[in-house]
Request: fold
Amino acid sequence: MSQPFKRLERVLRLEMKQGYQDKAVVGGIRQFVTFWIDQARAAVTEEADKALIEQVAEVLNQYHRLPGVEARADKIDNLMAKLDYRRQRVQGNKAKNEHHPSSTKRWTPPKQQPSSRRAPEAPTAPPAATPPPAKPDAPRPTVVADPARLQEPVTAVKGVGPKTAELLHRLGAETAQDLLYLMPRRFNDYTLMKSINQINYGETLTIIGTVWEVRSRKTRNNQVIIQAVISDGTGTVQASWFNQTWLVEQLKPNSQIVISGTVEQFLGRPIFNNPQWEPLAFEPLKTRRIVPIYPLTKGLSETKMRDIMRKAVTQYSDHIVDPLPDKIRSKHQLLPLGEAIRQQHFPQDQQLLHQARQRLAFDELFLLQLGMFSQRQDWLANPSLALPLEANSMQKYYQSLPFELTTAQKRVIAEVGRDLGETVPMNRLLQGDVGAGKTAVAAAALLMAIQAGAQAALMAPTSILAEQHYQSLQKMLAPFSFEIRLLTGNVTAKEKEEVYAALAAGDVQLVIGTHALIQEGVAFAKLGLVVIDEQHRFGVDQRQALRAKGPIIYDQQHHPHLLVMSATPIPRTLALTLYGNLDISILDEMPPGRQEIKTRWLPTRERERAYAFVRGQVKEGRQAYMVYPLVEESDSLDVKAAVTEYERLSQKIFPDLRVGLIHGKLANAEKEAVMASFKAGEIDILVATAVIEVGVDVPNSTVMVIDEANRFGLAQLHQFRGRVGRGQHQSYCLLIADSIGGDSQERLTALEETNDGFILAEKDLEIRGPGEFFGRQQSGLPELQLATLSDVSILEKARAEAETIFDIDPTLSLPDHQPLAQRLAQFWQQAGDIS
Ligand code: ADP
Ligand code: MG
Reply:
C-alpha cells in the first residue's frame, strides 16, 4: 500500500508551499512523523519500503533543527526524489534516466537569460518627477474556451521542458490546470511609485531611472558586490546586488530600468540591497506591480517560476469554464473563475486580488461541502444492523458506575441509542473537551450494541491508550458477562491468531485496539458498532477500513455504526464544515467538582521552582508528570536525552522519590507496565515524552510540568494539561519555556488565561490560521489554499449554496452541473488519493 507515502508527499508539498517554516502540520514535521511512522510501518510489506520509512523518519526527526530554508529545502527535495523513485519502482517503470536527476544535480544560483535574447532596450524619455503607473495588463482577445486543454501536461506550457516538468511535479503540478491552481504563497506589493527625492527609509516601493554607472568589487570574504547608481532627474540612489556578477553585463549605463524593493540606510544615505529590477521596456513581472511569490523547489528559481506561471496563465486561463452556476455567482458577486485565477496570480490591484481570493475561497469551501454531502450519501447507501435498546442492561450500567452521569453524557447516550436502533448507519462525532467523560459515553454505546447481539470495536491511536481503555472498560462493564480482548501491535503472533479466530467466530463481543484492528487478517462475525477515540489521529482511510469490516448479509455489505470522538472543540460553523458528513453530539458540561487547573508559565531559569513545587505535591500524596518534547519515537539521539534527563532527575533532583520513565522507544509491553505502576501509585514522578499526550487518565496526578513548552502546539499543550485535574484535587500545569520567537508567547499566555478548550481552539485558529488546523483535524480532506475558515461569511454562503444544489441534484447529473461534477472530482482527487 502506498497510502502513507502519498500522505507524506502531501505534507512535504505543503511544507514546500509554505516556505519551509515547519508549519505544514500542527506541532511541526517531527510531531507528524511520530504518528506517521506507526501507520506507515503497519501498511507496508516490501523491504525497500520499510527501509524508506526509516530513512524518512531519520531525516524528518532532525528537520526542525535545520538552520534555514536552504538546508530544509535540500532535505525535502531529497525525500521527494526518493518518493519519485519509489513511485517509479512501484509502477514498474524503469527510471527514465540512468541517474535520478536530483542525486546528481547540484543547486546553482539562478541565472538570468542572456540579455541578447531579450527585447531591445529602446531608449525612452526621461521619467517625470512622478513616474507613470504601470500599464494595466493588455486587453484579452476573445478565444473559444476549450476546457480539455487544461489537462495538457505542463510541458505544453511554452518554455517548459521535461526537466522543468520534473521540478514542477515536485510542487504537485502535472497539468496546465494544476499550474493554474498552484497559487502564490504571498505577494510583494511594489505598486507605490516615487521619485528618488521622495523616498523614505523602510518604504517598499518602485523607482524608475537611468543607470549612471555600474561597478563590481570584491569584499574581504570573497563576495562580489555589484553596485549601480541610478538617477531619475530628482536625485540619485545606489543599488547593490551580491554575487550576481552577470549584472555587470546586464545593467547597461544610460539604460532605463525599474527598481523595486525596500529602501535601506547605508552611511546616512538611502540604498537598495538586492532589489528586483527590470528594463523599463519589459512587461512588468517583478517590479512596479503586485508581484506573486511562488513556492519553489531546488533548481527552480523565483524568476523562472514566475515566468512559467505567467505563460501558463496567458496560455490557459481563457480555457477555464466556470463550473459555478451563473445564478450563484451573480448572487454573491463573485468574479468569473478565469478572471479570479488571473488576478490571483498577477493581480492588477489589491482590490481585485481581494475579490479573486474571495471567489477562489468560495469555490474551495463550496466544493468541500458538496464533497462532504456526497460522502455522507455514500456512507448511508449501505445498511447497518438495527441494534435496539435493551433498557434493563442500561439501568444496570448506570447503577454500577462510581459516579452519576452528567446531563450532557445522558443526552449524548440517548442520541447514540436512537441512531443505533436504525438500519441506517450512524455517523456521529462526539465532541467533548479533555476530561469531559467521553469514555463513559463510549462504554454505554459499546454496551448497547453488544446487548443487542452485535460485536463492537474501539480503536485508539496509541497502545498506551488502548491498554488503558481495555482496563477501564473491563471495570465499567464488569457486571456484564461477555468477552473483551485487546489487540495491539505487541500482541504475540499466537495470541493474535487466537483473537482473530474468536472475532471471526463471534466468540469475542468487544475488541479494543490500535491500528492493529484494521489489518487485513481481522474479520468479524457481526460487527455492529465501531468507536474511534481521538479520531483526529486517524485518516479517513483508516476509518474506511474499519467500516468495511461490517457483515455481509444476504449479499448486502452492511456497515457498522460509527462513533468518532474528539477532544478538540471547534466553533459550530467550522464543525459543520469540517464534519459536514457527520452528525455532531457535544459534551458541553464537565463532571461536577472539577477545579480549574492553575497554569503558570516559568522561564527556564526558574526550573528549580517547578521542581520544588513538584516535590511539595508529592509530599501531599499526589503524583506528577514531567514532559520532555525532545524525546520522540525513532529518534535515538533524543531518547538518549530523555534517559539522561530521567537519570538527572532521579539521581540528583529527586533521589528520595520514585521516578519513572516512559518514551516511544520502549516496547509496548514495557510502556504498559510503567503506566500500570504509575496508575497504582508506585511511581511519584513520571518523566515522559509526547506518548502520554492523549487520553491517559490517572486521577491522583495533579502536576503537569512541560519542559520546552514552546515546542508544542496549543491544542497539544491543552491535551497534555488535560492529564491532570481528573480527580478531586486542585491541579497545576507548569509550562517551562523562554519566549523564543514565533507565536509561542501568544500560545503560552492563552493557556495561562483559560482552561476552556473551546476558547483555546478559537485562539489556535486565530494564531495559526486554518490550513493546518484543517490538516490535523481530518487528514483526507482536500487541501485548502485560499479559504480561511475564520471567514465565516463565505463559509456560510458556500454551505447554503452547496445544500441547495445537493437537494436539487445530489448526483450532479443535470447537464448544467457537468462542469461542477468534474471540478468536484478533481478537487477531491488529491484527498481521495489517500482515502
Ligand atoms: P475524556 O473525555 O478526556 O476522554 P475521560 O472519559 O477519560 O475523559 O474521563 C475523565 C475522568 O472523569 C475519568 O477519570 C472518569 O472516570 C471521570 N468521569 C467521567 N464522567 C464522570 C462523571 N459524570 N462524574 C464524575 N467523574 C466522571
Ligand atoms: Mg479520552
